[in-house]
Amino acid sequence: MRQFKTESKKLLDLMINSIYTNKEIFLRELISNASDAVDKLNFKSLTNSDIKLDSNDLAIRISFDKDARTLTVSDNGIGMTAEDLERNLGTIAHSGSEEFKQENAESQGGDVDIIGQFGVGFYSAFMVASKVRVVSRAFGEQTAHVWESDGLEGYTIEDGERAEHGTDVILTIRENTKGENGEAGENYDTYLTEWGLRDLITRYSNYVRYPIQMMVSKSRELPRPEDAGDDYQPQYEDYQELETINSMTPIWKKRSSDVEQSDYNEFYKSTFHDWDDPARTISFHAEGSLEYDALLFIPGRAPFDLYSKDYQKGLSLYSSNVMIMEKCADLLPDYYNFVRGVVDSADISLNISRETLQQDRQLRAIASRVEKKITSELKAMRDDDRETYEAFFENFGRGLKFGIYSSYGMKASELADLLLFWSARENKMVTLAEYAATMPEGQKAIYYAAGDDRERLSKMPVVKGVLDRGYDVLLCTMDVDEFTFQAMRTYHACGLSKVYEDEVAREAAAKAVADGAEPEVEDRDIEFKNVATGDLDLATEDEKKDAEEATREHGDLFEAMKEALGDKVEKVAVSARLTDAPACITTEGPLSLEMEKVLARGPEAGTEGMPKTVRVLELNAKHPVFEKLVAAKEADDTEKLSLYAGLLYDQALLVEGILPADPVAFAQNICSLM
């Protein structure tokens, strides 16, 4: 017996038990080796006119024998001499394929696609096999040679027989093992079944460029006998037929002009298990220092588990048509986690097991290009097919908004123009750019209201107050909306009408436009303002003056109401924003009522230190109710004033969609007034 050329026992044990994390990839590795062998012979025929070879005859054959517990991977490729067996299989981590690639680097092209890199894929067979026998006959040789090993100490090489050039790798599959200490055992019988092998081939090697053939069981109806009676029941027989299991030509390697959209749709639905056609298909080929193909799909609907903790994002990563990772998460940012597809590159640097990547730089370059392509396609959908885009946004918009929030606003420049919000004035979804384009002269902020129901928001006094002044309000009903605005802080709007600092400049610009000049435009940052927080500064000078006078005249009333409400509010004040409502609740500081509600539903709800809003009860001094408050104060009716204050506060809370702290007391107070 010959010894492996290295410190064999330790290194081989490392190869078999440590490099690969998934036993089932052994078949992928053996098929890839077979594909390389066929590719080498094909390449030889292309460079040597004396070699006559019909490329249609090149194939890989899979067969199994349940009784003998053997699995065989055969090819009719270039084969190996005894010296090749010694060098390639006797020397661990020597790659004949890698050597071939280096020797023929200049003359390789689209006709050759060598997969092997490290020379260790063959040894993955020992993860599932107790013995491996390799029978190989080199092209042009008359004698075959047999390499055999149990993967423990060494190997033997002897003369053998094979009818034609090529290689047979024969695995003696291990016996099943029982689980111990609560762990599952190993079911090696899977590798001796038609369905098990078919699944592995289609999952990992479906796009190997040569046919992968296997005898499969089928059933057919026997001819009806001539003397069969009326009660004859059809009879069937089972038979074996050689079938090509793999698809060979991947759809992402074809030119998009040569592929019908229906073909893309069928590939998407069958590969990613969706019933609906994709909303958009993105296919592109990148060249340069890193060459790769990408085929991406934007789904037509959200998967049921999209927002669950078990959902896994990622694109399928292939190298030379062989699947490396089913879901490579690093190829997609979180906010595009809904995108499905494939990236295939022969240039990426894989680790020795071909299960993970070595160079993050290459992956980052691909991911960056993929992200830009997705963004560009979404913008095109937004502009060219608004109805489809609005349906898309209904499904996936929450993730885009969360992408801005989770990046602390760093991704706002990329994602802001993809967002949609409901316009209270237009009664439709609008982008931030569309909102900014319709702002009247003098508007300094983008106004929004946050809540859980669009209908209720549109009727809120603070919203109506802003609308009555001619400004639009975005009605935001996603729990992430307000957090997104706080992360963005401002929106960079382009092409807005220029704002002039003084009257002279404004008049000069107006005259120039009257004389035929184009109106001047500018880009500027516009801040976001919640209509229920802070001072919106929308009141006219007269309204501000009236509010100040009411505050001076009725300061004692506000103090009494504040005392009656206690720590429920920070203060009671005259409102300059209300038009027909008697009162409203506003907040001071960054935390709004809606944000407080969202946080109250989170994991930290009820814990000490939960942030609370700083609430203000604002009163409409022009409303008839205010006169009742003044009368109660003048009559020194403390009890009635306290009752009124509590009712107005609870009523304002109900308008905000918040239940009063004591609904029973609220109802009793209403009844007492009646």
TrEMBL record:
Molecular functions per Gene Ontology: ATP binding; ATP hydrolysis activity; ATP-dependent protein folding chaperone; unfolded protein binding
* Annotated segments matching region A: 1-354
Sorted alphabetically, which PROSITE patterns does this protein's record hold? HSP90
Q: Where in the cell is it found?
A: Cytoplasm
- List the GO terms this entry assigns under cellular component, sorted alphabetically: cytoplasm
* Record-listed ATP binding positions: 29, 33, 75, 80, 88, 95-96, 117-122, 167, 354
What are the alphabetically sorted keywords of the record?
A: ATP-binding, Chaperone, Cytoplasm, Nucleotide-binding, Stress response
Q: Where is this region: C?
A: 598-674
The Histidine kinase/HSP90-like ATPase domain extends over 22-177
Predominant cellular place of this UniProt entry's protein: cytoplasm
> Do the record's keywords include Chaperone?
yes
What SMART domains would the database entry show? HATPase_c
User: Does the keyword Nucleotide-binding belong to this entry?
Assistant: yes
From what superkingdom does this record's organism come? Bacteria
The text of the family note is: Belongs to the heat shock protein 90 family.
Q: How does it assemble?
A: Homodimer.
Q: Which HAMAP family match?
A: HSP90
Free-text function comment from the UniProt entry:
Molecular chaperone. Has ATPase activity.
Name by which UniProt lists this protein: Chaperone protein HtpG
User: What is the species of this protein?
Assistant: Collinsella tanakaei YIT 12063
Q: Quick one: which gene encodes this?
A: htpG
